[in-house]
Design brief:
- The protein has 2 domains: 6-136, Rossmann fold; 143-204, Arc Repressor Mutant, subunit A (Orthogonal Bundle).
- It is of the alpha/beta class and 208 residues long.
- It starts with 5 loop residues before the first strand and ends with a helix.
- The chain is elongated, with a radius of gyration of 18 Å.
- Helix 4 crosses helix 6, helix 8 (150-160) crosses helix 10 (176-190) and helix 8 (150-160) packs across helix 11 (195-204).
- The strands form 2 sheets. It has a 6-stranded parallel β-sheet with strand order 2-1-3-6-7-8, with helices on both faces. It has a two-stranded antiparallel sheet with strand order 4-5.
- 53% of the residues lie in helices and 15% in strands.
- Strand 7, helix 5 and strand 8 (123-124) form a beta-alpha-beta unit.
């Protein structure tokens, strides 16, 4: 029992966390849960797990914020998200995650992925591995894209898909005013003047 991998689950939906616990059964030792960034940092610092199962989208920020603010040595991060967007995968890997799997994964597959990440391997759902290879093998860096925060990229991607501000607010569970603030910040960083220009910029980089 003492040798089981110690895991913290970070996701803003309690029922999903409960379901993950049930799916994993006795394969790992779940030593903590968290539903937002501040709680995640506190729980991880206290529990010092081997692996953190981390959702990419969290209230008030993203999984990358958790990774960058945690200072527990030897703790590894495995993203577990409904999103299969390239920018989400690349963003969390650049922040330091050792893997990324989607929520369609089965319980036994997830337990195996946790074990492999704990052992130091990099683990990705098959379709997502290509995103990582493209990003880290010969792809030219994009300083403009890298200047954006994870949340700004999320807003930008939805603008490129044709979402209105109210729809973006509902999708990301933030206020319309916050959406407007993010858009203003992106326009300033990219030196653009309108949402239409933002959409063209995003489509040129295939962020949709």
């Amino acid at each position: 029992m003492a040798d089981r991998i110690r895991v913290v689950i970070v996701d803003d939906h309690q029922m999903f966390r409960t379901g993950v616990r049930a799916e994993l059964g006795g394969a790992v030792d779940v030593v903590g849960e968290a539903g937002d960034i501040a709680e995640a940092i506190s729980v991880i610092d206290a529990a010092r797990p081997d692996v953190v199962l981390l959702d990419v989208h969290l209230p008030s920020g993203s999984g990358t914020d958790v990774i960058r603010r945690v200072s527990v040595p030897n703790t590894r991060f495995l993203a577990l998200s409904v999103s299969d967007a390239a920018e989400d995968v690349i963003g969390v890997v650049r922040a330091g995650a050792r893997g990324y799997v989607t929520k369609t994964i089965s319980g036994p597959e997830l337990a195996d992925a946790i074990g492999r990440v704990a052992a130091g391997d990099a683990v990705f759902s098959p379709r997502l591995a290509g995103f990582v290879l493209d990003a880290f093998t010969g792809a030219a860096p994009d300083p403009e894209l890298d200047s954006l925060t994870q949340r700004e990229r999320e807003v930008l991607r939805l603008i490129a898909r044709g979402y209105a501000y109210k729809e973006i607010a509902r999708e990301l569970v933030i206020s319309v005013k916050t959406v407007e603030s993010h858009v203003s910040s992106v326009l300033r960083k990219l030196q653009l003047t309108s949402s239409r220009e933002l959409s063209r910029w995003a489509n040129a980089r295939k962020l949709t």
